[in-house]
Amino acid sequence: MTAGKFKWAGVAATAIILGLAPFWMKYVGSPFWIDVISEILIWSLLAASVNLLLGYVGLLSFGQALYFGFGMYGVAIGITQFGLGLWPALLLGILASGLMSAIAGAFAVRLSWHYFAIITVVFSLIFYFAAMSAKTITGGDDGLSFSTPVLWKAAGLTLSNKTTQFYFIYTICLLCYAAMAFLAASPLGMRFIAVRDNEKRASLIGINVYLTRWIAFVLAGLLAGTGGALFALFGRYASASYMFYHVSGEAVVWAIVGGLGTLMGPVVGTALLILFREIVSGYWDNYLIAVGVLVILVVMLAPRGIVGTFDGLLNRAKPNESAPEDVIEALSEMERSQ
To answer: What is the pLDDT of residues 141-176, one digit of tens each?
Structure first.
């Protein structure tokens, strides 16, 4: 089995194991852990949005919580103010985050390095304080709560059922990661990597660097917004506190620990740190110290992240497998052939 096939077999096995979680969890843990797995899947989408920008395009964003919050409030306001059902409210949340990321990205992607990181924090803080001030709309610190929406009335499916809720979240997250896998293997994904590796060479072969970065920014915002919309439905609640930049900082840590530029890195990093936090917090009040130590150890021992290090070891174990072409050279060939 080649390294590539081995990786995809691992991805498929992980998806199957997670998909069967409500069944095997009955024998190895309490129903509480089903909610923890659902939460991991949701937060992994926020980490995936960071991974898309930093791992594939080379842009470090500390403002992804802004689009997560827009996704949350899109759902909450859609249900409480407009009387929308679950699916229209979910769509409203995702579209709201996409629109916000399109506007912010038009300004942010003109910058790079620490200037880009700073402007993403600025956008996040502006709308965080705006949401905290507009209590009549957002609820401020108290947030907005809403009743459980019906998933499918004819079949009697509702998110109040933990198993139904889990599969609702699992299915949407699975679709998001499938789209990410398709994107990474597409010509657009190759353009992302070309811009990340060398934007000057990328521009010389005809790639519009600004447009490529803007598309990545919008897609990352949609990913974060989808996670926020799911989180609102998961907790029946939306709060401005989730728009603060420290939430984005956590997502950056999850993405780095899991492995930047990998498909499963956000899931692995988010799962490791959230599960570790849940377990240690039951025994030690100062559990965040232990979480910090774990992050430091992972970064020191596996600088490319857990999945990235595993990929490196797997490729090294397959020395006869042909190495992929340089991305920019491959794109040059594509441009010449057209």
So the answer is: 888 999 888 888 777 788 888 889 999 999 999 999
DSSP three-state, residue 149: coil
Find out whether 118 and 183 touch, Cβ atoms under 8 Å.
no
Residues 115-140 as b or e (16 or more Cβ within 10 Å = b): ebbebbbbbbeebbeebbeeeeebbb
Residue in this structure with the two tokens 């949005």, named with its chain if needed: 49
Contact predicate 243/143, CB 8 Å:
no
| Residue 322 main-chain phi, psi, to 5 deg | -65, 135
Q: What is the pLDDT of residues 217-265, one digit of tens each?
A: 999 999 999 999 999 999 999 999 999 889 999 999 999 999 999 999 9
Do 269 and 257 form a contact (C-beta atoms < 8 A)?
yes
The answer to whether 226 and 174 are in contact (CB under 8 A) is no
Look up the pTM and report it.
0.91
Closest CA to 93 of 250, 233, 218: 233
216: left (phi over 0), alpha (psi -120 to 50) or beta: alpha
Residue among 157, 107, 96 nearest 131 (CA):
96
